[in-house]
Design a protein that fits this description.
about 65% helix, about 0% strand, mainly alpha
């Protein structure tokens, strides 16, 4: 994989990135089969849950863009969106487990210049993570903490066109790193769907979504260890 467009593969099935992207699509399709076709219906209708629902949908949207970008040989764009995907999941987690009523009210306002200004005083990503780590279940916090430690700083470089993407454009993007990042993205996506199942209030659905990854270990991230990271 290179940092710029390249010639098409002779055989798409021989391309490990495309194969993993296809497998990731299958993973998401299997998750979607756990949900009603009519969409998510909140067990408890509240501004807090509506905002968390929106943040989960953002995380899932970003995950689709990440694997599509890697599949079309746009790894730098994929890395930038992966950083956004992480923050969408972090925001959803913070809204559910740590946000105060006043903070929820700020994010729930109609989009106006005044509301935008007020929202600038909300916690930073680091502050949100600190609160979430203290309040959320370990099954969620372990993934958020691992990403923050091993991947977030390098991926920030892609958002700001820093040393990482500039070097990768010149030297090429390692295939194994791309595959690790797709798996990490899939893990964040899975956590977002687990959160959606939780918001719907069905224990049966939550259990089904939670354990579905066992059928797709080939396209899911490793257990928290730092091995599948964005370090370079």
């Amino acid at each position: 994989m290179t940092g710029s467009s390249s010639a098409p593969q002779d055989s798409l099935c021989d391309d490990p990135i495309l194969a993993l992207a296809d497998r990731s699509d299958e993973f998401e399709d299997a998750i979607l089969d756990c949900f009603p076709s009519t969409g998510v219906v909140l067990a408890i209708e509240s501004e807090q849950n509506q905002l968390a629902l929106s943040a989960c949908h953002l995380c899932i949207e970003h995950s689709r863009v990440v694997r599509t970008a890697f599949a079309i040989d746009a790894p730098s764009s994929a890395c930038g969106v992966l950083r956004l995907q992480y923050e969408a999941l972090l925001r959803a987690s913070w809204l559910l487990f740590a946000a105060t009523p006043a903070q929820i009210e700020k994010l729930g306002r109609e989009l106006t210049p005044e509301a935008e200004l007020a929202a600038k005083n909300l916690p930073t990503a680091g502050e949100m993570l600190s609160k979430v780590l203290a309040a959320a279940p370990s099954g969620l916090t372990a993934h958020l903490a691992e990403f923050n430690e091993y991947s977030r700083h390098a991926l920030n470089s892609y958002v700001h066109s820093g040393i990482h993407p500039l070097r990768r454009v010149r030297e090429g993007f390692p295939v194994e790193m791309a595959m690790n990042l797709i798996r990490i993205s899939n893990g964040l996506m899975h956590m977002a769907y687990r959160m959606l199942a939780n918001l719907m209030g069905s224990q049966r659905r939550m259990d089904k979504v939670t354990h579905l990854y066992k059928q797709f270990t080939d396209c899911c991230p490793m257990a928290p260890s730092g091995e599948a990271s964005a370090k370079s």
